[in-house]
Each structure stands twice: as C-alpha cells, then as structure tokens.
Amino acid sequence: MKTSNRVLLALGVGAASFIVAMTVIFCVKGAVPDTLIQYTLGAGGVEALLLAGIKISKVRAGKDGDGDSEEKEE
User: Fold this and answer.
1) Number of structural domains, the chain?
2) What's the CA gap between 22 and 60, in Å, rounded?
3) How far apart are CA 45 and CA 49, in angstroms?
4) Is residue 43 assigned to a domain?
5) Contact 37, 74 (CB under 8 A)
6) How many whole angstroms separate alpha carbon 50 and alpha carbon 33?
7) pLDDT (tens place) for every residue of the chain, 74 residues total
8) CA angle (55, 44, 54) in 5-degree steps
9) Position 20 in a domain
10) Shortest CA distance to 3 belongs to which of 61, 70, 58, 73?
11) Residue 37 lies in a domain
12) Alpha carbon distances (Å) from 13 to 31, 36, 47, 68
C-alpha cells in the first residue's frame, strides 16, 4: 500500500471517528463544540491539500505513481 493511500485511509478513519464522537457529544450534552470542529476539519483540509500538492508534483515530474507507466508494460 502506498504512503498516500495510508494517509488517506487514516484521514477517512479519523473523520469517521470524529463524526461519531460529535454525534455522541451532541446527543449527551445537547451542544456542539464549534471550535473543536473548526480546527479538526481545518487540519484535515490542510493535509488533503498537501497530499494533492505531492501528487501534482509527481505527475509534473513524470512519475505517475499509479503503476501504469509505459516502462512497466514493455
């Protein structure tokens, strides 16, 4: 498994856990911690932007990263 896929998997698991935790907190307390939501989603967005930047730089450098390059097909 590639590193970027592992990071995306971790982001997905973290986001799902966060959604479950926020739902439980809302049901128990009756309120939503707005600051926590803002910072958590902001950090996830920054991480996604960094991964996109890495992918774009690899594509521009000529490395697909998908394993479908012409060199491997020959």
Assistant:
1) 1
2) 39
3) 6
4) yes
5) no
6) 26
7) 677 788 778 888 988 998 898 888 889 988 888 888 888 878 878 888 888 888 888 888 887 655 544 444 44
8) 15
9) no
10) 58
11) yes
12) 23, 17, 14, 28
d(CA 20, CA 41) in angstroms, rounded, equals 14
Return the amino acid letter for 47: E
Q: Model pTM?
A: 0.58
- Expressed as residue numbers, the domain containing 50 is 32-62
* Dist. CA 10–CA 25, nearest whole Å: 22
CB-based contacts of 62, cutoff 8 Å, min separation 6: none
Give the Cα-Cα-Cα angle 72, 59, 69 (nearest 5 degrees).
10
Answer for the pair 5, 54: CB distance below 8 angstroms, yes or no. Answer: no
Residue 52 within any structural domain of the chain: yes
Side chain identity, residue 46? V
